[in-house]
Amino acid sequence: MDGLTRAQRSFFARPVLELAPLVLGAVLLRESPAVGVRLTEVEAYAGLADPGSHSFRGRTARNATMWGPPGHLYCYFTYGMHHALNIVCDDPGVPTGCLLRAGEVVAGVEVARRRREAKPRKSHVPDAALARGPGNLATAFAATRADDGADLLGDEWSLWVPEVPVPADRISTGPRVGVSGPGGDGDAHPWRFWLTGERTVSAYRPAAARRRRD
Questions:
Q1: Which of 127, 147, 126, 115 is CA-nearest to residue 30?
Q2: Which of 17, 70, 179, 205 is disulfide-compatible with 12, CB 3.0–4.6 A?
Q3: Has residue 203 been placed in a domain?
């Protein structure tokens, strides 16, 4: 890919807050059939130090991939309706990951559209919305729990990063979407990163307030 280089293991073996902005502008590619998404929005989850992370309370069958080697995909099912993709980073045993929130479909647009429009809809999905939001991004790739643990250095999945990283002045930061409790504190955890002005970036929504039980 012009201007892009395939990421090797060493690229992923770094702290999540260092990796997250470097992933912006990179293309996540899945083969057979080929679909590629240029990543425009991600969130960092810092494991045992982060109350918003799946791994904050320890290792489980669900989050086991986060504890493994960097450069693998952590895929989980959430809200009983969609999947989400994360890139595992840092050293083995350090359970951190980068949630892929949104991107621009740059390869396999019609494949991604068929997947996104598989359920009856009143209108077509605009190009900018094909991979907007983590559930939609995972759907564009047809990602499921079967892809949990997939190696980004394998034959099916790969990440292609810009040879020249996106300049810092093109990157915005803010609170993570839908994270409740201490992990949702935007001052303490401004760990959502996105390319400023991109149409594909999702809208910010705070966590829904929980009803108090008397």
A1: 147
A2: 70
A3: no
